[in-house]
Amino acid sequence: MASDLEQLCSHVNEKIGNIKKTLSLRNCGQEPTLKTILNKIGDEIIVVNELLNKLELEIQYQEQTNSSLKYMKSRLTYCKINEVIKEINKAVISKYKILHQPKKSMNSVARNLYHRFIDEETKDTKGHYFIVEADIKEFTTLKVDKKFHMLLNILRHCRRLSEVRGGGLTRYVIT
Fold first, then answer.
1. Pairwise CA distance, residues 118 & 168, whole Å
2. Which of 10, 131, 161, 172 could disulfide-link to 135, CB 3.0 to 4.6 Å?
3. Each residue of 63-97: pLDDT tens digit?
4. How far is CA 173 from CA 43, 107, 122, in A?
């Protein structure tokens, strides 16, 4: 019984202390010099609260993306996915190296590739880097098989690639 009374007394004293602090802060808020400082602190608290809300939304989005990628990843390792990304980057670099090369310095093979690249471009891909399966076969050692297409689906899901279809070709646009 004595401990309950002590706890109740402690609780009441804590409440009284909180009321005293609130009253003293209220009195501080009436002083013009402190009022501007308190307003600035209030504004900063609002900004921090907004940032925390944005951070919470981003964390939720990342958790959803992470959970949706776990069924997509299947038996592929991150290492394998990264290797494919490096190979795709190699194909893009090789393709656009030919496209930016002066025509006079090209041999016949490079000139034929150049004309193929120009023919593959559409109004949807204009100004964007893109590759087609023929570029993968030409510039990399990757096999264009079911596993490769599964990797492309993962990259599309992560918004690293997008597909533009037309003219019997699927163009993979780098985003």
1. 15
2. 131
3. 887 777 667 556 677 888 889 999 999 999 999 99
4. 44, 27, 11
